[in-house]
Amino acid sequence: MNYIEAMKKRISVRKYEQKTYPSCAILKEKIKNLIPLNKNIKYRIDIVDKNTMMDLFKGIVGNYGKITSPNYLLISSEEKENYQMNCGFVGEQLALKLAYEGIGTCWIGGKIDKKLVNEKLGIEKNMTPQILMAVGYPKEKLTFKTDRKRKSLNRLIMSKETDKFDKIMDLVMLSPSAMNSQPWNFEILEDRIRVYENPGVMKKLLANHLNGFDIGIVLSHIYLATCEKFKTKPKIEKEEIEDKNYKMSVII
């Protein structure tokens, strides 16, 4: 598949046709082939129907922008270091795979009754439900939109040594985030892109707990766009940088 085309098509879909994705088996195969940020963090993605979701996630599903989809994905994980980033990293890969086929998705963050969900869905005790994603056929066909509300790259790039990643960064700007906050800054070096967390005042007040997922999402865009543009698999690792806002580097 072409991840660059998928990034251009992908938007957060809030209105769905009330028909299910054609095959749970196909969806499970896509889930099985995802690349994790950290192979040592166990995670799982469950496919859950609308009725079950309405019972388990009252106050989340149906209220967030009135999203009602025939199916949802629930990402659960061990709570190890950077587990939220890992969830965002794999979840956004899946969203892009689906967008390429014209299937809509939307990340949904909210308070989850983790004990209840674990019991009802048979999730292992060492796993904790983390975040939801609506999935289904969008009422409007997915197409590239040029009027997305995004901060300018000049506001997000802290320093820049080269122009060779400019096209990568244009695609990174399409990354979704909670409250459309784009809680990140970047350093562009000759051989790497460093990612920093910068949620802003409103995000800190209302959705600071979702920053880890957002960082994972933007790392996924950098990684996949780099794979496509440079025909190579970059490394993602944490350097020894004394800045509490520094999160990870994508090394090309």
TrEMBL record:
Which species is the source of this protein?
Answer: Geotoga petraea
Flavoprotein in keyword set:
yes
Name of the featured protein: Putative TM nitroreductase
Top-level lineage group: Bacteria
User: So what family is this one in?
Assistant: Belongs to the nitroreductase family.
Instruction: Provide this UniProt record's keywords sorted from A to Z.
Output: Flavoprotein, FMN, Oxidoreductase
**SUPFAM superfamilies (alphabetical):** FMN-dependent nitroreductase-like (SSF55469)
List required co-factors.
FMN
Which residue ranges does the record assign to the Putative nitroreductase TM1586 domain? 4-225
Q: Which GO terms describe its molecular function?
A: oxidoreductase activity
